[in-house]
Amino acid sequence: MFILHIVLSQGVLKHSKYLTLLISCLCFLSSVGNSSSFHLGRGGEERGGQGIVDIPLVDAIAAVNLGGGERGGGGQKEGGWGESRRRRLDIRNVGDMSGLFNAVSSKNSDHYNTGNNIISNGDRVEVALGTYQCNESGTNCAALSIMLYPNNLYGSIECTNDTADCILDGEKSRRLICAEEIAEQPLTLRALTFKDGQGNVGGGLFIYNALVNIILCVFSSCRAEFVEGEFNSGGAIEAGGSLTVLTVVNIYATSFMDNIADNGEGNDIYKDLYATITVHNICPSPYSSTNSTVGKRTYIVY
Questions:
Q1: How confident is the model at residue 282 (pLDDT cuts 50, 70, 90)?
Q2: Which residues are within 8 A (CB) of 139 and not within 5 positions of it... i.e. 6 or more apart?
Q3: 11, 152, 172, 253: which has the fewest Cβ within 10 Å?
Q4: Residue ranges of the domains in the chain?
Protein backbone atom coordinates (compact mmCIF):
# COMPACT_ATOMS: atom_id res chain seq x y z
CA MET A 1 0.00 0.00 0.00
CA PHE A 2 1.21 3.50 -0.85
CA ILE A 3 0.00 6.83 0.49
CA LEU A 4 0.58 9.39 -2.24
CA HIS A 5 0.31 13.09 -1.56
CA ILE A 6 0.25 16.32 -3.49
CA VAL A 7 1.21 19.15 -1.14
CA LEU A 8 1.85 22.71 -2.23
CA SER A 9 3.17 25.74 -0.46
CA GLN A 10 0.72 28.32 0.84
CA GLY A 11 0.42 32.02 0.08
CA VAL A 12 1.56 31.96 -3.52
CA LEU A 13 -1.47 33.47 -5.24
CA LYS A 14 -1.33 37.11 -6.30
CA HIS A 15 -3.41 37.28 -9.48
CA SER A 16 -7.15 37.02 -9.87
CA LYS A 17 -7.08 34.11 -12.34
CA TYR A 18 -6.30 30.87 -10.57
CA LEU A 19 -7.23 27.27 -10.02
CA THR A 20 -7.19 25.47 -6.70
CA LEU A 21 -6.78 21.75 -6.29
CA LEU A 22 -4.88 19.33 -4.07
CA ILE A 23 -5.11 15.58 -4.00
CA SER A 24 -4.12 13.05 -1.38
CA CYS A 25 -4.64 9.47 -2.51
CA LEU A 26 -4.67 6.20 -0.65
CA CYS A 27 -3.37 3.89 -3.34
CA PHE A 28 -3.01 0.16 -3.67
CA LEU A 29 -0.84 -1.68 -6.14
CA SER A 30 -2.97 -3.18 -8.88
CA SER A 31 -2.10 -5.74 -11.50
CA VAL A 32 -1.12 -4.60 -14.97
CA GLY A 33 -0.27 -6.37 -18.19
CA ASN A 34 3.28 -7.11 -19.20
CA SER A 35 5.20 -4.43 -21.04
CA SER A 36 5.11 -4.90 -24.78
CA SER A 37 5.25 -2.95 -28.01
CA PHE A 38 2.71 -2.16 -30.65
CA HIS A 39 2.97 -0.90 -34.16
CA LEU A 40 1.39 1.80 -36.18
CA GLY A 41 0.94 1.16 -39.89
CA ARG A 42 1.07 4.38 -41.86
CA GLY A 43 0.79 5.07 -45.55
CA GLY A 44 3.82 5.97 -47.61
CA GLU A 45 4.82 9.17 -49.29
CA GLU A 46 2.74 10.93 -51.90
CA ARG A 47 4.99 9.69 -54.68
CA GLY A 48 5.74 6.05 -54.14
CA GLY A 49 7.43 4.24 -51.29
CA GLN A 50 5.98 2.88 -48.11
CA GLY A 51 6.27 4.57 -44.74
CA ILE A 52 7.53 2.59 -41.77
CA VAL A 53 6.88 3.80 -38.24
CA ASP A 54 8.26 2.32 -35.01
CA ILE A 55 6.25 2.97 -31.86
CA PRO A 56 7.58 1.76 -28.49
CA LEU A 57 5.24 1.11 -25.60
CA VAL A 58 5.69 1.15 -21.84
CA ASP A 59 2.29 -0.19 -20.82
CA ALA A 60 0.29 -2.60 -22.98
CA ILE A 61 -1.88 -0.74 -25.50
CA ALA A 62 -3.89 -2.10 -28.37
CA ALA A 63 -2.35 -2.03 -31.83
CA VAL A 64 -3.52 0.73 -34.14
CA ASN A 65 -3.50 1.00 -37.92
CA LEU A 66 -4.03 4.33 -39.63
CA GLY A 67 -4.25 5.26 -43.27
CA GLY A 68 -1.76 7.94 -44.19
CA GLY A 69 -2.89 9.04 -47.61
CA GLU A 70 -4.93 11.86 -49.02
CA ARG A 71 -7.97 9.64 -49.51
CA GLY A 72 -8.00 8.25 -45.96
CA GLY A 73 -7.26 4.56 -46.35
CA GLY A 74 -4.30 4.44 -48.69
CA GLY A 75 -0.73 5.37 -47.97
CA GLN A 76 -0.21 6.77 -51.45
CA LYS A 77 -2.57 9.01 -53.30
CA GLU A 78 -3.86 6.06 -55.26
CA GLY A 79 -3.96 3.52 -52.43
CA GLY A 80 -1.73 0.98 -50.77
CA TRP A 81 -1.02 0.43 -47.07
CA GLY A 82 2.27 1.30 -45.49
CA GLU A 83 4.29 -1.40 -43.81
CA SER A 84 4.61 -1.58 -40.08
CA ARG A 85 7.10 -3.22 -37.83
CA ARG A 86 7.63 -3.74 -34.11
CA ARG A 87 10.40 -2.18 -32.09
CA ARG A 88 10.92 -3.27 -28.54
CA LEU A 89 11.20 -0.46 -26.02
CA ASP A 90 14.80 0.20 -25.02
CA ILE A 91 15.57 0.69 -21.33
CA ARG A 92 18.76 2.56 -20.44
CA ASN A 93 20.04 2.13 -16.90
CA VAL A 94 22.11 5.01 -15.53
CA GLY A 95 23.86 5.29 -12.19
CA ASP A 96 25.78 8.56 -12.26
CA MET A 97 25.44 12.15 -13.43
CA SER A 98 27.46 11.64 -16.62
CA GLY A 99 25.34 8.67 -17.66
CA LEU A 100 22.11 10.56 -17.05
CA PHE A 101 23.32 13.66 -18.89
CA ASN A 102 24.56 11.68 -21.89
CA ALA A 103 21.24 9.83 -22.15
CA VAL A 104 18.75 12.71 -22.09
CA SER A 105 20.37 16.14 -22.48
CA SER A 106 19.76 16.50 -26.21
CA LYS A 107 19.82 20.29 -26.69
CA ASN A 108 22.21 20.92 -29.57
CA SER A 109 23.61 24.43 -29.33
CA ASP A 110 26.91 26.21 -29.01
CA HIS A 111 25.71 27.47 -25.64
CA TYR A 112 25.04 24.04 -24.11
CA ASN A 113 26.76 20.71 -23.71
CA THR A 114 25.03 17.85 -25.54
CA GLY A 115 24.89 14.24 -24.37
CA ASN A 116 26.86 11.77 -26.48
CA ASN A 117 24.54 8.76 -26.18
CA ILE A 118 20.99 10.14 -26.36
CA ILE A 119 18.13 7.64 -26.14
CA SER A 120 15.78 7.15 -29.05
CA ASN A 121 12.40 8.83 -28.84
CA GLY A 122 10.00 6.77 -26.76
CA ASP A 123 12.66 4.90 -24.79
CA ARG A 124 13.02 4.85 -21.02
CA VAL A 125 15.86 5.88 -18.75
CA GLU A 126 15.92 4.14 -15.38
CA VAL A 127 17.85 6.13 -12.81
CA ALA A 128 19.59 4.38 -9.93
CA LEU A 129 18.91 5.55 -6.38
CA GLY A 130 21.16 8.36 -5.23
CA THR A 131 21.93 12.06 -5.49
CA TYR A 132 22.90 13.60 -8.84
CA GLN A 133 24.95 16.79 -9.04
CA CYS A 134 26.94 18.61 -11.70
CA ASN A 135 30.70 18.76 -11.36
CA GLU A 136 32.42 22.09 -10.71
CA SER A 137 33.13 22.75 -14.38
CA GLY A 138 29.63 21.72 -15.51
CA THR A 139 30.97 19.35 -18.17
CA ASN A 140 28.63 16.53 -17.08
CA CYS A 141 25.58 18.79 -17.35
CA ALA A 142 23.97 20.94 -20.03
CA ALA A 143 25.61 24.04 -18.58
CA LEU A 144 26.66 25.49 -15.27
CA SER A 145 23.18 26.99 -15.02
CA ILE A 146 21.12 23.96 -16.24
CA MET A 147 21.52 20.32 -15.25
CA LEU A 148 19.54 18.55 -18.02
CA TYR A 149 18.12 19.92 -21.27
CA PRO A 150 15.91 17.38 -23.11
CA ASN A 151 14.94 19.09 -26.36
CA ASN A 152 12.66 17.47 -28.95
CA LEU A 153 12.99 14.23 -26.99
CA TYR A 154 10.10 12.18 -25.64
CA GLY A 155 10.07 9.03 -23.56
CA SER A 156 10.55 8.73 -19.81
CA ILE A 157 13.07 9.41 -17.07
CA GLU A 158 12.19 7.23 -14.09
CA CYS A 159 13.65 6.40 -10.71
CA THR A 160 14.05 2.68 -10.09
CA ASN A 161 11.61 2.94 -7.19
CA ASP A 162 8.47 5.01 -6.71
CA THR A 163 9.52 6.80 -3.52
CA ALA A 164 11.50 9.57 -5.24
CA ASP A 165 14.90 8.43 -3.94
CA CYS A 166 16.56 9.65 -7.14
CA ILE A 167 17.52 13.21 -6.19
CA LEU A 168 18.45 15.88 -8.73
CA ASP A 169 20.35 18.41 -6.60
CA GLY A 170 20.83 21.87 -8.06
CA GLU A 171 22.88 23.02 -5.06
CA LYS A 172 21.01 26.35 -5.20
CA SER A 173 22.94 27.31 -8.31
CA ARG A 174 21.18 25.84 -11.37
CA ARG A 175 17.83 24.85 -12.87
CA LEU A 176 17.38 21.09 -12.85
CA ILE A 177 15.52 20.35 -16.09
CA CYS A 178 14.61 22.47 -19.09
CA ALA A 179 12.17 20.59 -21.38
CA GLU A 180 11.46 22.23 -24.73
CA GLU A 181 9.98 21.50 -28.15
CA ILE A 182 8.44 18.13 -27.23
CA ALA A 183 5.19 18.16 -29.17
CA GLU A 184 4.81 14.68 -30.69
CA GLN A 185 4.45 12.59 -27.52
CA PRO A 186 5.06 13.41 -23.85
CA LEU A 187 8.20 13.31 -21.79
CA THR A 188 7.39 11.54 -18.52
CA LEU A 189 9.25 12.33 -15.31
CA ARG A 190 8.57 9.72 -12.64
CA ALA A 191 9.59 9.50 -8.98
CA LEU A 192 12.34 12.15 -9.18
CA THR A 193 13.13 14.63 -6.42
CA PHE A 194 13.91 18.15 -7.63
CA LYS A 195 15.97 19.66 -4.82
CA ASP A 196 17.50 23.13 -4.46
CA GLY A 197 16.98 24.03 -8.10
CA GLN A 198 17.43 27.69 -8.93
CA GLY A 199 16.94 29.84 -12.02
CA ASN A 200 15.38 33.12 -13.08
CA VAL A 201 12.15 31.20 -13.83
CA GLY A 202 11.18 27.61 -13.05
CA GLY A 203 13.92 26.83 -10.57
CA GLY A 204 13.13 23.12 -10.63
CA LEU A 205 11.60 22.60 -14.07
CA PHE A 206 11.08 24.91 -17.04
CA ILE A 207 8.70 23.68 -19.76
CA TYR A 208 8.16 25.37 -23.11
CA ASN A 209 6.25 24.10 -26.16
CA ALA A 210 6.17 20.63 -24.66
CA LEU A 211 4.01 17.77 -23.43
CA VAL A 212 5.16 16.65 -19.99
CA ASN A 213 3.83 14.16 -17.44
CA ILE A 214 5.01 14.57 -13.84
CA ILE A 215 4.32 11.50 -11.71
CA LEU A 216 5.19 10.76 -8.07
CA CYS A 217 7.82 13.52 -8.01
CA VAL A 218 8.92 15.87 -5.22
CA PHE A 219 9.83 19.55 -5.66
CA SER A 220 11.70 20.78 -2.60
CA SER A 221 13.31 24.17 -1.87
CA CYS A 222 13.42 25.29 -5.51
CA ARG A 223 13.64 29.00 -6.27
CA ALA A 224 12.99 31.46 -9.06
CA GLU A 225 15.58 34.04 -8.11
CA PHE A 226 15.35 37.74 -8.81
CA VAL A 227 17.12 38.82 -11.99
CA GLU A 228 16.65 42.37 -13.22
CA GLY A 229 14.40 42.50 -16.27
CA GLU A 230 13.28 38.85 -15.98
CA PHE A 231 9.94 37.41 -14.85
CA ASN A 232 11.37 35.58 -11.79
CA SER A 233 8.28 33.38 -11.48
CA GLY A 234 7.52 29.71 -10.82
CA GLY A 235 9.71 28.62 -7.95
CA ALA A 236 9.29 24.91 -8.73
CA ILE A 237 7.76 24.84 -12.23
CA GLU A 238 7.30 27.39 -15.00
CA ALA A 239 5.27 26.32 -18.04
CA GLY A 240 4.80 28.34 -21.20
CA GLY A 241 3.73 27.82 -24.78
CA SER A 242 3.23 29.70 -28.01
CA LEU A 243 0.52 30.44 -30.55
CA THR A 244 1.56 27.42 -32.59
CA VAL A 245 2.35 24.86 -29.85
CA LEU A 246 0.27 24.43 -26.72
CA THR A 247 2.16 23.22 -23.67
CA VAL A 248 0.28 20.49 -21.76
CA VAL A 249 1.40 19.33 -18.31
CA ASN A 250 -0.22 16.52 -16.34
CA ILE A 251 0.67 16.09 -12.66
CA TYR A 252 -0.06 13.02 -10.55
CA ALA A 253 0.67 12.48 -6.84
CA THR A 254 3.48 15.03 -6.63
CA SER A 255 4.65 17.03 -3.59
CA PHE A 256 5.71 20.70 -3.50
CA MET A 257 7.52 21.91 -0.38
CA ASP A 258 9.25 25.17 0.54
CA ASN A 259 9.56 26.51 -3.01
CA ILE A 260 9.72 30.25 -3.61
CA ALA A 261 9.48 32.78 -6.43
CA ASP A 262 11.28 35.99 -5.52
CA ASN A 263 8.60 38.12 -7.16
CA GLY A 264 5.84 36.21 -5.34
CA GLU A 265 4.24 34.93 -8.55
CA GLY A 266 3.81 31.18 -8.29
CA ASN A 267 6.02 29.86 -5.51
CA ASP A 268 5.21 26.39 -6.80
CA ILE A 269 3.80 26.69 -10.33
CA TYR A 270 3.50 29.51 -12.83
CA LYS A 271 1.90 29.10 -16.27
CA ASP A 272 1.18 31.40 -19.16
CA LEU A 273 -1.91 31.57 -21.36
CA TYR A 274 -0.54 29.01 -23.81
CA ALA A 275 0.03 26.29 -21.22
CA THR A 276 -2.47 23.88 -19.67
CA ILE A 277 -1.68 22.27 -16.32
CA THR A 278 -3.88 19.57 -14.82
CA VAL A 279 -3.40 18.09 -11.35
CA HIS A 280 -5.22 14.77 -11.45
CA ASN A 281 -7.23 13.38 -8.55
CA ILE A 282 -6.40 9.79 -9.44
CA CYS A 283 -3.38 7.70 -8.60
CA PRO A 284 -0.98 6.83 -11.41
CA SER A 285 -0.56 3.36 -12.85
CA PRO A 286 -0.07 0.73 -11.49
CA TYR A 287 -1.78 2.06 -8.34
CA SER A 288 -5.50 2.42 -7.78
CA SER A 289 -7.22 4.88 -5.48
CA THR A 290 -9.74 3.84 -2.87
CA ASN A 291 -10.01 7.29 -1.33
CA SER A 292 -9.07 10.81 -2.36
CA THR A 293 -9.39 14.25 -0.83
CA VAL A 294 -9.20 17.67 -2.43
CA GLY A 295 -7.38 20.56 -0.84
CA LYS A 296 -5.72 23.74 -2.04
CA ARG A 297 -3.32 24.21 -4.92
CA THR A 298 -2.51 27.39 -6.78
CA TYR A 299 -0.92 28.52 -9.95
CA ILE A 300 -0.69 31.88 -11.66
CA VAL A 301 -1.94 32.85 -15.09
CA TYR A 302 -0.57 35.98 -16.74
A1: confident
A2: 113
A3: 11
A4: 2-35+90-301, 37-88
